[in-house]
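README: folding subset

This subset contains proteins for which both the sequence and a predicted structure token string are available. Records are stored as plain text. Below is the entry for DUF1822 family protein (318 residues), shown exactly as it appears on disk.
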Amino acid sequence: MVSNRSPQSLCTRCYMLDADLLVDLILSRPSISADYASFLWQCLQQRQIHGCITELGYQRLCIIMNQRDARHALTLAEVLMRMLTVCRSDANIWLRANSQPFEYDSAEEIACALHYRMDGLITHRPEQFEGAGIPVLSPRDVLESHLRRSLQPPSHHSFPLPARSITHLANWRNGQFDTSWLPLADIWDQGHLGTICRDASPYAAPSSAGGTRPVARGKFVEVRHFDRRLERVALIVQICPMQQPDVFDLSVICAARDGGDLPAGLQLWVVDQQGQESMVAQPSRSGRATLQFEGQAGEAFDVVISLGGDRHVETFLI
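--- output ---
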């Protein structure tokens, strides 16, 4: 998927959306002020908020809309898939949900938000989530929070970034590597990322023209939520020569350090040297985010890992 956003716009908070809220938003029910509903929908569309929904909630929305208008339901499903992250549930989430003193739909939303370490939950009935153990916001709270943040002068001290260095991929092809970029075997040993590393391994990829194999390296990077919780994830980059001279196939993989799930709301971006076009990936069911693209010798690009209010940027020159 291609986006026109620059890295400066990547700092978004991640929230679980109550399915009842989405139903009322979509059906334009009077339980939500039209102004608040319009603003929340705009935030979701423009990715000012990273919205998530449970699998159960998504299925429920599709069923409700299909009962009303099957053709519109298909369009709505496509829109929601572009706007929202559908969070998968597993045995841990089910157990956590069943231990909550709420109806199961709400309990699963809370359990998902806690499991994926989101910044909170948005609902038009916050009283129903009292005691959930996570921040609960109404659409009005979202609007007021946005206004407060927009009136504050930008801070240059919240998340200081180190001076950015450039990784020269031409050096990789000549067997020269910065010490921070590790062989995949070391990433595998340190982070239990065997399957993921095999996917990006030069030995798993076919030989390219001229018999030159792909080259892959990885490192662990850190990003923080708004509440300063630290996430340490693995970043793996692979470059492979193609048949055309000076044209390369590049793969970028982000995975959880323990080989499990990446936190909901994490995004992996590749931004071109003009900063005007970018590709974005979110965690998939495989527990990783992956991007693949072509580049030419001499081109530069940034890899951006964003989460909550933080981002990590790596700059590369092909």
